[in-house]
Task: inverse folding
């Protein structure tokens, strides 16, 4: 005889958190989280307490004090009487300069090398292999130091340019001076300049924006807009008549004529470097610390990018190349129009991490005396004020911000080029 | 999770070491070795010789302290530090004392929480230029490129000097003396500036020292001395009085040659107190009675150490100048051993 009863409604008991597999994993995770937070809190409170015991409480007031040191490469005006915060800002700009220059150069070199490594030409492919393996397998610090040593030891000092029997001379019709203190190139000057806009008054992040540059960018933007209109018109004509009108001379005119008019109106001329006293004066001075760092970082990262590009290309099925050949496309166009656009989808995500690596590796700058943010905030400021914890925390925050910004931009780009599936 | 526990433990251990301010002398005795921070390489002040033994004026201070505390002038672990790393090394407890031509300044003493044990070399910042440049004064250096060790007081003096004289310059920050030397010799900078003693020491290692001149301007006061962490007064006293013992020994005529003879007892009570044959000075410091005698035996008195490492008979060739005894018109003046 059987009696049917409803199964008893299961009551939730505390022990089920441990014995019931439905809840157990959540329990473990919560306990682990609490434990981790306790540990973190303990470390933080311990640090603060110990620092206070040493008589060094955590505070950021020293940022307002005068920095008292000079920085050689400064994109904005800075003197030793400016604050530590200003010095850190100058350093930040230097970091960004080398990171941006490095990322661009590394990308260009990397893509070329990656493509050439797959070349059918045995010699070219082998040379590229040697390049990639050499740069990838030696620490970047050594490349930076080597590049600096080569620049210092092999190039002439400015005093070699002096006197009757000068042993060195300037290049490119006396416009560029290559010395072991850096390269001096002509600078852009405007005799009828529009002046600057001063932003942020007298604060530590004050900077000037040249109105000449803004005018130039506006004209350039206008030209590009007009060029797009013209090519849209050309495309429409092609659609309706089947003939594409010749527009390249119009395009060139639209691009260059307004620009040249603007430059003449502003009184554009070049300022040439000239040997005066101890050093070259005038022109733009690209210090060899910047050049060494830039070269070493970009060549090093380019080796990794080359491998990513190669992998991306190899990931595209051979059938695509064969189909393109069957349609009569030449190898160069096959690469540019068929393979690379598809390969980009594979290439972009690992590329992001290489850009991040390059930016973070730029903190090795102090090895060659390049005053980046690690050299100013994490170097001299930290050393002169003795605020290790504050400086390092801020430094970490800065790098975190830069890296997250790069990731955000690259992820946005990745979303644009990635395969859209329906 | 396991990893973060280990990392956390390591961090805490590091922090705990940072906070360990008291009991350095016990640590040193227990370890049987003194960890002494020195310059990573400056001829005459601290440089390993051909056998890998550290030699030099600053090294001698480390050896004297080791001899005073442990009775063995070789019981020293030398830790090379740069201008940037030295204070962190000392504050974190990696080294027990720092003898690395470090300038005694207010903020280092008060704000960075260190304790200077005295001055072992009165110095000032100078400039070195190649003779071929034809410069005779630092005020003619307008527009020059200047190599400078980063993280030092010289960096700040330099900025002030050029600003005060309203002349411009291009600083090239450099991590170590060796790199500065390389850049200076290659002509990547016109001028090298650091403490005058450091310039003389650097110049002595050049192939043609005569091709380089030190400019007459001394733009700052740089009293260099050994330092310890703030808050451990017993240890600070030991380092301070070891240094004073070397200075007093010279003043009192105690040398490494006659110390054994004098240790037997003399009729000068101060010599007796210094060498531990009279009074209980060693006991007061928590050391053996012959602590000062051992320190002096390690490398001789101050004058002997000076003459052997950086004096006029050496390639570095520094005159005593300000570093003569007060009785000879210098600034060396040890408080009495009483």
Result:
């Amino acid at each position: 005889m059987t009696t049917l009863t409803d199964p008893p409604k299961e009551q939730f008991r505390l022990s089920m958190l441990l014995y019931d597999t439905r809840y157990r994993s959540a329990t473990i995770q919560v306990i682990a989280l609490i434990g981790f937070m306790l540990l973190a809190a303990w470390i933080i409170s311990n640090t603060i307490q110990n620092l206070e015991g040493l008589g060094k409480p955590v505070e950021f007031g020293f940022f307002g004090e005068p920095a008292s040191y000079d920085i050689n490469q400064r994109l904005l005006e800075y003197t030793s009487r400016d604050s530590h915060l200003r010095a850190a800002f100058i350093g930040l700009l230097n970091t960004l300069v080398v990171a941006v220059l490095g990322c661009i150069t590394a990308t260009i070199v990397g893509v070329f090398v990656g493509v050439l490594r797959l070349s059918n030409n045995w010699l070219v492919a082998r040379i590229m292999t040697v390049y990639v393996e050499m740069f990838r397998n030696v620490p970047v610090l050594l490349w930076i130091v080597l590049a600096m040593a080569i620049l210092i030891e092999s190039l002439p000092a400015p005093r070699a340019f002096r006197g009757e029997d000068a042993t060195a001379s300037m290049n490119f019709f006396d416009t560029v001076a290559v010395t072991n203190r850096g390269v001096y190139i002509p600078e852009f000057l405007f005799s009828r300049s529009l002046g600057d806009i001063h932003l942020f008054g007298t604060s530590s992040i004050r900077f000037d924006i040249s109105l000449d540059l803004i005018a130039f960018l506006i004209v350039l933007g206008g030209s590009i807009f007009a060029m797009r209109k013209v090519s849209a018109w050309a495309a429409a004509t092609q659609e309706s008549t089947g003939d594409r009108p010749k527009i390249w001379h119009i395009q060139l005119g639209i691009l260059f004529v307004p620009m040249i008019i603007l430059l003449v109106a502003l009184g554009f001329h070049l300022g040439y470097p000239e040997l005066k006293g101890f050093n070259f004066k005038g022109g733009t001075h690209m210090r060899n610390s910047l050049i060494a760092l830039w070269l070493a970082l970009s060549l090093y990262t380019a080796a990794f990018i080359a491998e990513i590009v190669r992998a991306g290309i190899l990931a595209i099925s051979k059938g695509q190349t064969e189909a393109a050949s069957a349609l009569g496309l030449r190898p160069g166009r096959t690469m540019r129009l068929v393979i690379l656009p598809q390969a980009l989808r594979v290439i972009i995500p690992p590329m992001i991490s290489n850009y991040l690596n390059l930016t973070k590796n730029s903190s090795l700058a102090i090895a060659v005396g390049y005053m980046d943010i690690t050299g100013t905030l994490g170097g001299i400021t930290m050393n002169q004020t003795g605020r290790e914890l504050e400086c390092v925390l801020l430094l970490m925050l800065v790098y975190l911000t830069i890296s997250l910004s790069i990731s955000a931009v690259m992820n946005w780009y990745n979303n644009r080029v990635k395969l859209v599936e329906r | 999770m396991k990893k973060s526990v280990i990392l956390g433990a390591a961090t805490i251990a590091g922090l705990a070491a940072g906070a360990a301010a008291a009991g350095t002398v016990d640590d040193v005795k227990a370890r049987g070795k003194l960890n002494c921070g020195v310059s990573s390489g400056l001829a005459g002040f601290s440089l390993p010789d051909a056998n890998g033994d550290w030699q030099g004026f600053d090294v001698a201070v480390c050896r004297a302290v080791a001899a005073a505390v442990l009775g063995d002038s070789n019981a020293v672990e030398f830790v090379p530090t740069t201008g940037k790393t030295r204070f962190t090394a000392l504050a974190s407890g990696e080294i027990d004392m720092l003898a690395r031509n470090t300038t005694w300044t207010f903020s280092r003493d008060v704000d960075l929480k260190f304790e200077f044990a005295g001055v072992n070399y009165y110095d000032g910042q100078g400039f070195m230029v190649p003779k071929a440049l034809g410069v005779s004064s630092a005020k003619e250096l307008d527009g020059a490129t200047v190599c400078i060790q980063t993280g030092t007081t010289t960096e700040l003096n330099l900025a002030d000097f050029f600003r005060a004289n309203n002349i411009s310059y291009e600083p090239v920050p450099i991590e170590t003396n060796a790199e500065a030397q390389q850049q200076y010799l290659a002509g990547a900078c016109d001028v090298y500036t650091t403490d005058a003693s450091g310039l003389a020491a650097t110049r002595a290692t050049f192939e043609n020292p005569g091709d380089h001149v030190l400019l007459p301007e001394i733009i700052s006061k740089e009293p260099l001395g050994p330092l310890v962490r703030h808050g451990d007064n017993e240890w600070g006293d030991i380092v301070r009085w070891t240094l004073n013992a070397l200075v007093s020994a010279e003043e009192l005529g105690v040398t490494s040659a006659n110390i054994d003879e004098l240790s037997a007892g003399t009729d000068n009570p101060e010599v007796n107190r210094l060498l531990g044959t009279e009074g209980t000075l060693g006991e007061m410091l928590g050391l053996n009675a012959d602590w000062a005698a051992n320190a002096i035996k390690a490398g001789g008195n101050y004058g002997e150490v000076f003459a052997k490492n950086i004096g006029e008979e050496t390639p570095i060739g520094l005159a005593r100048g300000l570093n003569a005894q007060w009785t000879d018109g210098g600034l060396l003046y040890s408080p009495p051993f009483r």
